[in-house]
Amino acid sequence: MNTSTSNTTSTSCNTSTTKIAVVGAGLGGLACARVLQLHGLDVTVFEQEASADARPQGGTLDMHGDTGQVALRTAGLHETWRALARPEGQQMRAIDPLSADVVMDEIPAEDDEFKPEIDRGQLRGLLLDSLSPGTVRWDRATRDVTPLPDGTARLRFTDGVTEDFDLVIGADGAWSRVRQALTGVRPEYSGVAFVEFGLDDADRRHPALAAFTDQGTMVAKTGGNAIFAQRNSNGHIRGYAVFHAPEDWHAGFAFADTAAVRATLLERYAGWHPDLLGFLRDNDGEFTHRPLYVLPVPHAWTSTPGVTLLGDAAHLMPPLGVGANLAMLDGTELATALATSPTVADAIRVYEARMLPRSIETAAACQEGLVHLLSDEVRPAAA
């Protein structure tokens, strides 16, 4: 045992006897587990969902060359990802909401591969398939985590069972249970609501809306209201109505009442061009409410042996195209630090010394970007 602080000890972390728990089977947690296994470290991922297919995984993600793609290279998965990625998805379009005219259309160059798109579900599947069988323990929800005096941490599940680990990594997203062991900070509502919808087989069933979206991302916005639409794989388009609203703006109806949601949105977007209103009027009928929550900036904590955070658990910020990239970079950098540092506590300090300043700077930029997300400027603010 090597001394890491005056009151705690920390296990050597460059050996397969070190026990590491990752809470959350999202992209950051899975990327972390993948790199840990590449280095021969013992890791178990605990996920509260019942299976990999328990729910849809969301829309499309752009993997940036200086963050997400770096993580994929570290994980040895860049070429596998590249076979699934869509460079043409980098196209960005802006549509005038009143005339439905195209006012901006940025088509990527043939050799532009800085941030190709990939469906989130495809990327998650790629990461899951890269892990040793049994790495992910499904249907294991975490209640809380307690740092212990010897530098380890106790993970308690909702069924009351506890297990001790040399390190518990909170990769459990916006409402992280692990975060409560370090900061106790909870996300705050940003004042911006997202309402998600989908268009299946869009080129055949919704050709006019597919033409608006083309191969990448389309945005139309005015007066604090916006519609974003993104091309996914297999002819699917995922869209979002985005607007400023109080947190309880939908209190008068249930989101299961599709007709009520549609009528409310069409009233909010009254005056927009009828063709663009097709995104709200003619979609496939299931709306999902995604209020936008963020962690305060800066969000940091005192380095604590036995526990750390990555991804949204560490730095939940507005969805401006960087969250998944940072989560994967966090995960692979943490795993590399664990594989190359003399103790777990040393690895945590090395990782957090790099991750926290980066996340604080990026979160501040995203907070500023959120101001422009719903402004009337032509250039889309979201990726």
TrEMBL record:
Main function: An FAD-requiring monooxygenase active on some tetracycline antibiotic derivatives, which leads to their inactivation. Hydroxylates carbon 11a of tetracycline and some analogs.
Protein name: Flavin-dependent monooxygenase
UniProt key word Cytoplasm: yes
Catalysis: reaction(s): a tetracycline + NADPH + O2 + H(+) = an 11a-hydroxytetracycline + NADP(+) + H2O
Residues the record lists as binding FAD: 62, 120, 312
Family assignment from sequence similarity: Belongs to the aromatic-ring hydroxylase family. TetX subfamily.
All residue ranges annotated as the FAD-binding domain in the record: 18-189, 307-341
Assembly: Monomer.
Organism in which the protein naturally occurs: Amycolatopsis heterodermiae
Main location: cytoplasm
EC number in record: 1.14.13.-
Known cofactor(s): FAD
InterPro entries (UniProt xref): FAD-bd, FAD/NAD-bd_sf, TetX_monooxygenase
Residues reported to bind NADPH: 55
Domain notes: Consists of an N-terminal FAD-binding domain with a Rossman fold and a C-terminal substrate-binding domain.
Subcellular location(s) per record: Cytoplasm
Signal sequence, start to end: none
Keywords: Cytoplasm, FAD, Flavoprotein, Monooxygenase, NADP, Nucleotide-binding, Oxidoreductase
